[in-house]
Fold:
Amino acid sequence: MSADMVSLIVKALGETVYMVTVSMAIATVFGIPLGVILHTTGKGEILENAAVAKIVGSTVNAIRSIPFIILMVAIIPLTRFIVGSAIGTTAAMVPLVIASVPFIGRQVETALKEVPYGLVEAALAMGATPLQIINRVLLPEAAPGIVSQLTTVVIALVGESAMAGAIGGGGLGDLAIRYGYQRFRPEVMIATVIILIILVQVVQFLGNTLAQKLNKRAGA
Amino acid sequence: MIEIKNLTKTYYGDTGPVAALKGINLTIATGEIYGIIGKSGAGKSTLIRCINMLEAPDGGQVIIDGKDMTALNAADLRSARKKIGMIFQHFNLLSSANVYDNIAFPLKLVGTDDTTVEKKVRPLLELVGLKDFAERYPAQLSGGQKQRVGIARALASDPNILLCDEATSALDPQTTKGVLELIGQINRQMHLTVVVITHEMQVIKDICDKVAVIDGGVIAESGSVVDVFTNPGQPITKEFISVLLSNDLPTAFRDGAVEQEYSPDSYLLLRLIFLGESADDPVIAGMIRAFPQIECTMLFGNLDQIRRIPFGRMIIGITGEQSALAAAMDYLKAHDLRMEVIGYVRRHGIVNR
Structure:
């Protein structure tokens, strides 16, 4: 493989990492509160509100039911409005964020469901406000679960970011398609696939390690 | 003082409405340990949750030191709850926080500064015997230790009331004893009103001053533990007590013919209950001396304690002339004990079986 090729791969890896980390960071900022809303407005929970639960829940389901490749194309006007262009790595992050927020919301909701209601009840009995229960009971108790769930989202994002290559998003997926597939360079294809595999392994390892570190339930 | 007035609560489940509380009236005096005993589904958990409004009752009032809990808005309710500690069957400790931070939790809720928190938490750790466990996480503790953390956490905000919801039901008997002793000690030292929910009569017997028996959403019987134990009025109460104190006749008589009529060759069986001071009195010896013409045989005897009050139970058989037996019974009645006539059995009935 030529030096040029190596530098292309390194550049593409950089783009993938950039797309995934920035999209993930932005999506998490919105996704965690969304998950909290999904969970706490549910039946029997501290902010029970059937209307909110229904509206938010259906919106999340609606966005999640759109295949990513279609979502990406469908929201091009919005992308152009936000970043000023529909093409490029930064532009690709708009659909990535929009697809990830409801995904994170559901994943966080799942993690919050694992917190025994007894803990919420104990906090209520101590006179905690709903916000205090969210910040001091639900989120800390669900932290290991949230980290595990977010790891899954990051891995999904790696895959989606490859698709984003289709609208000129750059990254490893884009490289694999343009060089590996369209220009008949199987070695590029193989190299990107190997890099993607390693990338996913590293993300999973980091996620597991962090979740385990946060989990105090297992004992000594 | 906690006054519960005509409290009602109905749950609407998939299988139709279930009336959990059907008009509960209770008065719990300041500083006493009040036990509420009932089977599962009797409504006892709902009742204790209505005291701090974890469950909102449908009707009636819960008045704590003159304040009607059912009429408070959310913010006032939160501040009222800070003066009511609660401990739970499954402890409900934060798994992500160590012992120290669990105990500090109620203090952090009100924004207490770290120095004050430290001054509060360290003595509590000492009180519950977990001085060296501050850095441990709940998963590293035994059940008894977890409940001790629960107790310390409940006490951190200097409550006036401690609610114990099946607090020892997940613990083994030995650990239960230790936790109950701690609750009793706290009650005496801090003059705290304690409400205990349980399905075990042993818990009531060990620490409670008063008891209410709840059955089918109503209070079947209530009173001082000593009174209820020695003179239960309702079948459900007798059932709870029978777990601890069997009221059955000794096996030898169980299926023997117990007659209500006197016959010269039969024994009159009497069940005697001694309470407090009278448990020490030589009443039986006195009776034997006073009526040398009757014979007395001891069939069952047991001495127990209810809240450190000696409590003796005995079954004796006496035989002799009918008039002598009547006189002996009068003699016993004149003493400080409770007597119940079981009936007459043939002499041989006692020995042969």
